[in-house]
Design goal:
75% helix; 0% strand; 7 helices
């Protein structure tokens, strides 16, 4: 039996869902219900702002290299990432050429792009985090996101496709 994470079994699952209206409806209702559930949880969330520590306190406890290594190990061991790369990379590999150098180029390119995006994401997070230190902002954000999830889940639930 093929692993559920292999591209073949994902295509098989997609074919089953496309061929079986009942299976598709079950998956659609479960997905929509989960989105609605998450929306209600966010909408009625009463959590208070998290007290953040200063970045210098974290840097004093752990070196930049250690923090980078921890993040790298978490990222490289993520099964979703492994599945993504297993599905993406073969589309760009020329079997007539040496494959190792192609994988090195693809992985290096992805690493640089991902690093830039994550650096931007972390910088933006550090800039806007003071805004989310207020309970009223968190409540408004949670209600906005919760309402959005409820609306999307409801739309999926009533859609015919």
């Amino acid at each position: 039996m093929a692993s559920l994470r292999s591209p073949f079994s994902l295509k098989l699952l997609g074919a089953i869902l496309a061929a079986s209206e009942i299976a598709f409806t079950i998956v659609k209702v479960l997905g929509a219900g989960y989105l609605i559930y998450l929306g209600f949880r966010a909408f009625f969330d009463t959590s208070s702002p998290v007290q953040t520590t200063d970045i210098t306190e974290i840097k004093d406890q752990k070196s930049n290299l250690l923090l980078f290594n921890q993040g790298f190990v978490i990222g490289i061991s993520n099964p979703k990432d492994l599945l993504f790369f297993a599905a993406l990379f073969p589309n760009f590999i020329n079997l007539a050429e040496p494959q190792l150098i192609q994988f090195v180029i693809l992985a290096s390119s992805w690493f640089v792009i991902d690093f830039i995006i994550m650096y931007f994401y972390a910088s933006l997070g550090s800039k806007i985090s003071p805004i989310f230190a207020k309970a009223t902002v968190i409540r408004a954000f949670n209600r906005t996101i919760g309402g959005f999830f409820i609306a999307v889940g409801s739309t999926i639930l009533v859609s015919n496709k």
